[in-house]
Amino acid sequence: MADSPGTEHRTIGFVLGGGGHLGANEVGMLHALLERDITPDLIVGTSVGALNGVAVAAEPTLETVEELRKAWLALGKERVFASPFGGAGNLVRKGNHLHSNANLKALIERLLKVDRFEDLAVPFQCVAAGVERAAEHWFSQGPIVPAILASAAVPGLLPPVEIDGEHFVDGGLVNSIPIEKAIQLGATELYILQVGRIEQPLSVPRNLLQVATVAFEISRRHRFARDMASLPQGVVGHVLPTGEEDAPAGLKQLKYRDFTHVAQRIESAHQATGHYLDALV
Questions:
Q1: Less packed terminus of the chain by CB within 10 Å, N or C?
Q2: HEC profile for 218-248?
Q3: What tens digit of pLDDT does each residue of 229-247 get?
Q4: CA distance 129 to 79
Q5: Around Cβ 64, how many Cβ atoms within 10 Å?
Q6: Nearest to 150 by CA among 132, 129, 125
Q7: DSSP alpha helices (H): ranges in 112-253?
């Protein structure tokens, strides 16, 4: 692990937020970090950030980032948000989700080289929202794949995941950018990998669907702002940039099956984060 220039040894935590298809930005950020020998002592992640984060936790190398990049570039063809019965069919049969999580499960299994949290090279935890207890639940031991599926179970899109008799949905509902957890685990220097929403202005919603997404954005940004404003003394937080300056937040995530700009997002975040990190020297 490389210490930040001009500082004593610090415990580095990677914090990977949720954001669906926008998670491609995190791949570029990871590339910029690892090519500068900034490696994590611990990783926490939510939703798609859990998927990206656990891959690096298994093997924190540039080779892993390249595998992630290839996986993201293939997502449009692999149709993660597809179902053998079709979205409408699932909604009629199950009533609570449009898509099966089978394709996402297969992707995770191909990407990972280990099966259990205990076998990861870097300590890793991911969060999901517990339905029955209406609370955030952190996974840190046992089988990895069910935990990632639970953390990424976007309500309405993917099915809730049952683990040990409880049901879980997307961790973004309770902790979209888990800064506080990384600090609790001992991180003193945080590299916060977010998908770009906090960089983009919100606008007044124009329809009922946008009302829901904008309301969620206000909630998640409020917690993020609170966590950043209340960093304990001695803890440093670096919010990594995506380099994107396009559509307002609250609109891009509506196109959850649009993977056409993956390569552009990865490279944009790689370049922007690289410039940011070089400026810290």
A1: C
A2: HHHHHHHHHHHHCCCCCCEEEEECCCCCCCC
A3: 999 999 999 999 999 875 4
A4: 25
A5: 19
A6: 129
A7: 144-151, 179-184, 208-229
